[in-house]
Amino acid sequence: xxxSPSSLTTLRLSxxxxxxxxxLAIWRAGGRVAVPTETVYGLAADASNATAVNGIFxxxxxxxxxxxxxxxxxxxxxxxxxSDVPLAAQQLAQAFWPGPLTLLLPKAxxxxxxxxxxxxxVGLRVPSHPLLSQLLHAFGGGVAAPSANPYKSxxxxxxxxxxxxxxxxxxxxxxxxxxxxxxESTIVDVCGPTLRILRAGxxxxxxxxxxxxxxxxxxxxxxxxVPGNVKxxxxxxxxxxxxxxxxxxxxxxxxxxxxxxWLQAFAATSTRLLPADAVGYGRELYxxxxxxxxxxxxxxxxxxxxYEPEWLAIHDRxxxxxxx
Length: 324
Description:
The chain is built from eleven helices and 14 strands. By secondary structure, the protein is an alpha/beta fold. The chain has two domains: 202 residues, DHBP synthase (Alpha-Beta Complex), CATH 3.90.870; 82 residues, no CATH class. The strands form two sheets. The chain has a ten-stranded mixed beta sheet with strand order 1-8-2-3-7-4-6-5-9-10, sandwiched between helices.
């Protein structure tokens, strides 16, 4: 089913019992179904089926050496996918699962190399979205599920955004409404003696340190091969520029900001106000960029948000989104 990504009719499924059964049937046949998570929509396929996993890469046009995150129904399945589950991983799973935290662990021998990008580790998480949780419990196994978008494009937080990028390239998308967080999960490497946060996300460094009772490294830049760690990523089609408060936009520029007063100086038709708090801002960011991307601007300018700890994940995404 995953071998013909450009000749498909992509189904838009609802949350009805019949449509849920159809989504499960597609997974079991080796196909791809975009599903909502509490972070962003993921393009999911059977993680134990190498052919199905390769279909994810084909649809996204994503390099095959980029590892994927496996989503499982509960922490009890950790040992099905990881060869070792250290105490810190158990503590973090108990504290934050189901939720937007991915644990990087030594992979079990049977995990396909296609899932891990050939690496000896596997990223695992238990999502909290009720629809995906229902699907995973019914499916019984794990699904590999990167964001449901073409490689390096904006991550989707709605079914509409999924279809804008992947219509005709995947079997189905389940419309479960908007995502709760709007930013990808925090990734924590728990393989070594010192834990490392390799992707900032909704679960913060402080929260993790409180649970494990030890310092946790959080390098702002690193070379570890994990989802999202490329220079240019999360990008709208329209060039994006981060600007300071003294920027003066000309015609053809779309403006996004968390500061309503700053936007008042510009035409309302060319502006998009984002929430002033980090959680609300993260929830709306990708959707706002997608919305402005449809309006034919020459460039998008985004007022740089505050440099405070709770904004770290947002700055990570914006830095990559504005990289050209």
